[in-house]
Amino acid sequence: MTSWRPPASQARRDELAVAYARDGYGLLEAVYDGSSPGWLRELPAVDVLRQVLLQNYTRTITADGREVIRRRENEPEGDGLPPGRARIASPDDTHARWGVKREEFWLGYKLHITETCDPPPCTCRTEPAAQQAAAGHSGQSGRGHEHDREHGKGCAQLVFPNLITNVATTDATVTDNQMTEPVHHALAARNLTPGRHYADSGYLSAELVVSALKTHGTALTGPLLADTSAQARAGNGYARADFAIDYDAKTVICPQGKTSVSWTPCTQRGKDAIVATFSASDCGPGPARSLCTTSGKKRRQLTLLPRGLAEAQAAARAAETTIPFQADYARRAGVEGTMNQAVGHGARRARYRGLPKTRLDHVYLACALNLLRLQAYWTGTPLDRQRTSHLARLELALAA
Q1: Same domain for 205 and 110
Q2: Element (DSSP H or E) covering residue 142
Q3: Average pLDDT of the chain, as a whole number
Q4: DSSP assignment of 274-339
Q5: 219-221 vs 196-198, strand pairing mode
Q6: Whole domain around residue 341: which residue ranges?
Q7: Entry pTM
């Protein structure tokens, strides 16, 4: 229906979709009929058709023998659709899935890239004072900038390329934070475990920060996702940070001075959590109620992290606002250029059908990008990130 102009009315489009389903069921009945050749049932396209019909339609026979075919709809009104990670989105590529990230909406896969961002050892001859700075350069952002001014123009540090160390390809429904631990395991298997790993906020959580340090000795660095509660998103209400949490007393005090009446450890989505609940009488009608909750139960509930994770989260969020953190995290900016370089070489559109072939294609793409960077380094060709922007060139021209 996307290759030509569909009917204008929704009712007509639904009617046409059911007509397609009826044709599909008729074809399957003919294929599985005893008089049909057995090899027809082995065709992959036949199995795809069967799955698509099962996932998107219900088919029943009434008491009077009449066939009724309906499109599946989301619960609770409908019969329920399979989750997006399992639902076939294209008969041409049964591994592709619909994905969404902010304003982007696409059918296909996700590519996760990891690259080095270490400052290489200095190869130029420097004065003793500069050599002292070089000895403490690793992991010291401030000293690094000071030491850069001591380099000769031909020093390798000015052009040394970042190299891609891992690529991971998933279907579009896999969230970024689901890939953090698999990426760490893949790096560890090749003896490439990083001491610090700079990642986008989508790859981070308090639990992942703690587990990465404990399991691999990796300091997972980046801004944690902000509070996603309705109050925090609106910026006009009592968010989780406005409540005082006492893990020793197992209580929570709200901004109005009320104390929670229950503290319940539980498991949510397979992870340990704590639910703190306030009484309905404390959360009753009042000027502050609209700032706190819109729950039909007339009381506020808070879902809390276990103490160790909560402390790690608080420490990480406090560090995010500091200048040293921001200077250190600036190293991650290079991978944005890598993604842009990958897109320039065709990563935005899959060349092959199926996740295994697409994954292999991305591995070859990463190898090619590494070779391009090494060739630029060996021949002394400036890398893309050394270019002067149009705005900077204009500023230089005006200054001259």
Answers
A1: yes
A2: helix 141-148
A3: 83
A4: EEEE--TTTTSSSTTHHHH---TTSS-EEEE--HHHHHHHHHHHHHHTSHHHHHHHGGGHHHHHHH
A5: parallel
A6: 99-117+162-224+321-394
A7: 0.77
